[in-house]
Write a structure and sequence with these properties.
The chain is α/β, with parallel strands linked by helices. It is about 35% helix and about 15% strand. The model has no long low-confidence stretch (mean pLDDT about 90). Its EC number is 2.1.1.314.
């Protein structure tokens, strides 16, 4: 049996009982280590699970899947992923490869940012398409995400923006020369993300991400509990001038609030607002919220 097991969002204790049983019964256990990160180190997971974990980086998952799947038709092999197994298309591809080899598969689900974003106070059924925001470079500034946000905005829906992470990435020079030298990990911060959103708004000029009149909610380490999890709400303009320390440690996500927002959503998120008066005034004047 080939298992893909969701680990949840925080630490070694977020795994489900069903997932832990599968881990303990597996002959090999791989830890996918590039689409997201947990808040603890690999060694802490190993101590809790009682199993040695084999790190599966991008190269292994995308080009050496046969090694991961080796023997899984006759013994249990597990791939651990942060969040939920279907949070990344990579894991769907792994399942398709296993099925092609006629290997029995089982998915064990867990919490992910896709549902934990409800901690912001915004209702999950009011979300539209999720988008990813990558690091801009001087020569590469992809802006297709803007069209998806606009489509959501036209329907009044919220948009979850997933911020880029760079783990085991090579520089252009090292990649061109075939040198296996990797850059230090990088995680996009909220100020950088907001800056990139505003930059594209300035190019497009359609008002979808107008800094002074667009409400947004920044989330950090959701599920980490008090002292770890951080939620900050405000206009894009407000979020753009906050210190990086305001938003806590990575990983970060950002929600663009849609115009169909309910007053109860605004009221709940107001607890996290940089300035409660600005938050409510924009909700009333721009979003048309009416409070009793």
């Amino acid at each position: 049996m080939f298992y893909i097991i969701g680990l949840g969002l925080c630490d070694e204790k977020d795994i489900t009982i069903r997932g832990l049983e599968a881990v303990k019964g597996s002959s090999r256990v791989y830890l996918e280590a590039y689409t997201s990160i947990l808040m603890v180190q690999k060694e802490q997971l190993e101590a809790f699970y009682g199993k040695e974990l084999i790190l599966a980086d991008r190269d292994m998952v995308e080009t050496e899947s046969d090694e991961i799947l080796r023997g899984a038709a006759k013994e249990d092999v597990s791939l651990l992923v942060v969040g939920d197994p279907f949070g990344a298309t990579t894991h769907t591809d792994m399942l398709l490869r296993a099925r092609a080899l006629e290997i029995p598969c089982r998915v064990i689900h867990n919490a992910s940012i896709m549902n934990a974003v409800g901690a912001s106070g915004l209702q999950l059924y009011n979300f539209g398409q999720t988008v990813s925001l990558v690091f801009f470079t001087e020569t590469w500034k992809p802006d297709s995400f803007y069209d998806r946000i606009k489509e959501n905005a036209d329907l009044g829906m919220h948009t979850l923006v997933l911020l880029d992470i760079k783990v085991k990435e090579q520089s252009e020079e090292n990649l061109a020369r075939g040198r296996k030298i990797y850059e230090p990990p990088r995680y996009m911060s909220i100020p950088q993300a907001v800056s990139q959103l505003i930059e594209i708004e300035e190019d497009r000029q359609s008002g979808v991400l107008s800094p002074e009149s667009t409400l947004a909610i920044a989330l950090s380490r959701v599920g980490g509990g008090p002292g770890n999890e951080r939620i900050v709400a405000g206009t894009l303009a407000e979020l753009s001038v906050q210190s990086p320390e305001m938003f806590g440690e990575p990983l970060h996500s950002l929600v663009i609030v849609g115009k169909r927002v309910h007053p109860l959503e605004i009221e709940y998120a107001e607890e996290f607002a940089v300035d409660r008066n600005i938050w409510r005034n924009v909700a009333i004047g721009v979003y048309g919220c009416k409070f009793d």
